[in-house]
Each structure stands twice: as structure tokens, then as C-alpha cells.
Description:
Layout: E1 13-16, E2 21-27, E3 30-31, H1 41-44, E4 53-54, E5 60-61, E6 65-69, E7 73-76, E8 85-86, E9 99-106, E10 109-118, E11 129-140, E12 143-154, E13 161-163, E14 167-168, E15 185-188, E16 192-196, E17 202-208, E18 220-221, E19 230-234, E20 252-259, E21 264-270, E22 274-278, E23 288-289, E24 295-296, E25 306-310, E26 326-328, E27 333-343
Antiparallel strand pairs: 1-2, 2-3, 4-14, 5-8, 6-7, 9-10, 10-11, 11-12, 12-27, 13-26, 15-18, 15-20, 16-17, 19-22, 20-21, 21-27, 22-25, 23-24
Amino acid sequence: MSTKASSKAVSAFTFLPRGALIQEFNVGGRNIVQNFPEASLYSMVEHPHFSETVGRTTNRVQNATIANLNGGKTYHLTKNNGEHALHGGPTGWGKRIWEGPTPCQRRGKEGVTFRYLSKDGEEGYPGTVEARVWYVAGMEGDKTVLDVEYEAELVGDEVEETVVGMTNHAYFNLNLPAPTVEGTIATLGTTSYLEIDSDGIPTGHIKTYADIPSTPNTPFTLGPSHPDPDDCFVINTAPASVPLDTRALPLHLLATLHHPASGIHLEVHSTEPAFQFYCGRFLEVQACTTSDGVEVPARGKRGGICVEPSRYVDCAGREEWRGMCLLRKGEVFGSRTVYTAWTD
Length: 344
């Protein structure tokens, strides 16, 4: 099941229950996210989280281990990235079937909502958690806006606390069906990033990124292979100040993308303290065929750009950062991301 609504804004989008994902994000009649044309292909063809809602945590958890939780207990997660856990595990929230899409009104606009109940022990995580996502579409003049809210609560009685992180893993290509994002002009709202080791695990240091302009919001162009970030950029460099529910915080501009060939622009704002900016260096999806025989081309390296608003990488496993993702009974995890797109 997928859904398209009747209004101009909402009809620009198609959503699917698997992973509460965004199947289509249309701007000026062109889809700008890597996708499959049929829902069944998302489970039949291996792909790297195309527009999925990622959870129960985002990015990596070092050694797939969370220690000193619920009175000193240690939890061993399912490994799916070498020795580490990535994006909630091999069958994380992006691979699960959510309830929805259910039509709704939120912030005075038409949208849809999804709900998923994550059971205690799923992929090794403690506690039963209810996750919710709202997609609310609107128009600001000639600009198409998708306002996304994430929410999670610990609803089971198995434990007193757990960890949570949620984001969307869309691969944006503003010049589809072009095979790569070459020629895209980007800006980032910060040049601070989490230094990482060879496994993509933070060292604990926040540094200035060297391969893009040193001044935030300065344009740079993506070439055939360079620059090639796959890093967590930091908006809020004071981790202890990040609340569990960030939705009351101001929206910050994380990134802008523009492709001169298509004339399409995209801005990503969020209340989150950080975001992964990834230019698809590992993207490799085989060609496939729809049920009625239509060929779907392969997708390869640099086929899309991910802007993943989130908490710090490995905040679930690192006690000094855990406050930003530690969910206790009676509390609510929340965040908000707004995508704004238009054509020249």
C-alpha cells in the first residue's frame, strides 16, 4: 500500500509502510530521491536504506554494545557493520512494516502519520518503544515543503530506560535520471564535525572539516569523485545541552543543494544537533525488473546525497553523550526536520 493525497502539496509525495519511507519527492514534476517504482522491490532488492525511517538508533554504535543501562546492565546489539551496529541493525525500523500511512491534520496542514511498535529485545535493544512519524506537506509560494516530525515513547514495563534515535535516509539526486550527483552545488551550515577512526567511530574530538570551504554556508561543487564526505557535522557542539525532545528548539539550516542542469533547489532545516552528510561513495544497487517487465537501472557510486539530521554518532554507546538519546519511562523523544524544494 502507498498513498498519494489530492492537494497539490501532498500529491508531490508518495509514502510506503515499509520503513515509513518516502517513495517519491516530486519538484517541478521530477522525483528527486532514489527509489524503486514498486513497493515489493524494496524487500526484494538489497539497497542502502532508500528514504527509510532509521531507528531504533541512527548511525553506528561502537562494538554493538550499550553498557551501564538500567542499573548497570550491558546490552549486546545485532552487528551489521563489522563489529558495530548500524542504523538499528540489519532489520531495524527501516526494514519493518509500519501502521499507516494514515491521513491526518498537523500544524494546520494535510499530511499522513505512521506508527510502529518496537518490541523489547528487537535487535538487542531493551524495552518496548512506540515510534511515530508525521509527514506534513505544504506550499510556501512556489516552494514545496515537507515537514517531518519524529516521536518515540517507552511504553513497555520491561525496563526503565532505553536509547532512541530517528532520522530519514533519503538519497537526493536533484538531476535524476542522471546517474550521479556530479555538478551539484552544496552548502553546509557548519564546518565542525566529529573526528572518526577507520571504522567510522568518533574519537571524541570535534574538529573543522578540511575538504570543504572553511566558512559555513559557502558553496562548493561536487565533482566526479571529490569532495567526498561521509561524516557527522555538528551544529550544537555542547552535547550536554541537547534535550531528548529537540522540537522546541529553532530550526537550523543544515544544508542546501542545487543542480544547475535541472534548476532544482533543496534546503534542509532541522532541530537536531548534528547531521550525517554522505555523498554515496558506497552506493551499489543492482538493476531489477518490475512486475510488468519494466527495467529499473542499477544505482552506483555517488548516485545520491544523504543529509541525515540526528544526534551524535555513537551517543547511545558513549556515556558522556548518552543524555541526548536516553529515553526513560514517562519521557518523549522528539525531533523535527523541514525540507524545502523549488525550481528556478
